[in-house]
Design brief:
Its EC number is 5.1.99.6. By secondary structure, the chain is an alpha/beta fold. It contains 9 helices and 9 strands. It is 42% helix and 17% strand. The structure holds ligand NAX and potassium ion. The site of ligand NAX has 27 residues, from helix 1, helix 2 and helix 3.
Length: 223
């Protein structure tokens, strides 16, 4: 099995997008559908999607949109400054705003208290806070939200990486989301594989990154 660290995965993403011209939005969409296929929609009908403002968050918003498209009940919790959001995040947020009334920008203590209260009513929580972009310890409101998510007994799915885990070293950069399922994109991450507690609940999904991107970055194979 191929194992990649954060840097290698980000280089492969970048090669696919910038050299092989695979649209980033397509990868985000494929990532969202890769998670959707693991959700039993007969069993789960009320979702909380917790997003950061990067492309892990974009994956989460694309999933929210696909759930809303089927009239599922979705609440979206946004952490971080939307002004700093990625393009793919912004585009998916625009559509979610047309489909969803329950979008919460979590900034204050009161917001956290309301989030904690509301999470008791959903039946599935999606962790789309951080993926391969996590580059420092999780602190402040992010750390509080991870704790809130971990303290509520609900089925949890992490997109790509359980937020708080360093995808290269397997180190906990603060409290890590204790998800029931991790859906990692395209290649197994070293940091997940080396921690049995994460490896055993992780599935790998192909999101359409060309093998040529993987071979070029990992083995230097160029035309
Ligand atoms: N275009 C792409 O690169 C693709 C990315 N994908 C998804 O996007 C993720 C990578 O996205 P990004 O590179 O935007 O990064 P993330 O979405 O993982 O992180 C979001 C942002 O959080 C900030 N951050 C990092 N550590 C933090 C901390 N401790 N506290 C507060 N903020 C912190 C960083 O500025 C980072 O840009 C992947 O894990 C995957 O889920 C996939 O959709 C495939 C395509
Ligand atoms: K995540």
């Amino acid at each position: 099995m191929i194992l990649v660290d954060k840097e290698k995965m980000r280089a492969i993403d970048s090669y696919a997008i910038n050299v092989l011209k695979v649209p980033a939005l397509s990868l985000v969409e494929r990532a969202s559908l890769a998670v959707l296929k693991h959700i039993n929609l007969n069993k789960f009908g009320y979702f909380a999607i917790v997003v950061g403002v990067g492309n892990n968050g974009a994956d989460g918003l694309a999933l929210a949109r696909n759930l809303l498209a089927r009239y599922k009940d979705v609440e979206i919790y946004i952490l971080g400054d939307v002004e700093k959001a990625s393009e793919e995040f912004r585009l998916n947020l625009e559509s979610c705003q047309m489909l969803c009334e329950e979008i919460f920008y979590v900034q204050s203590i009161e917001d956290l208290e309301e989030m904690e209260r509301r999470l008791n009513n959903v039946n599935l929580i999606v962790d789309a806070i951080f993926g391969t972009g996590l580059n420092r310890p999780v602190t402040g409101i992010y750390a509080t939200v991870v704790s809130i998510i971990n303290n509520v007994m609900k089925y949890k799915i992490s997109i790509d990486i359980p937020s708080g885990l360093d995808a290269s070293t397997g180190q906990d950069l603060g409290e890590v989301v204790d998800s029931d399922l991790i859906v990692t994109m395209q290649l197994m991450k070293k940091g997940i594989y080396e921690r049995e507690i994460y490896k055993k609940k992780c599935v790998i999904e192909d999101i359409g990154i060309p093998q040529k991107a993987i071979d070029s970055v990992l083995y230097g194979l160029v035309d």
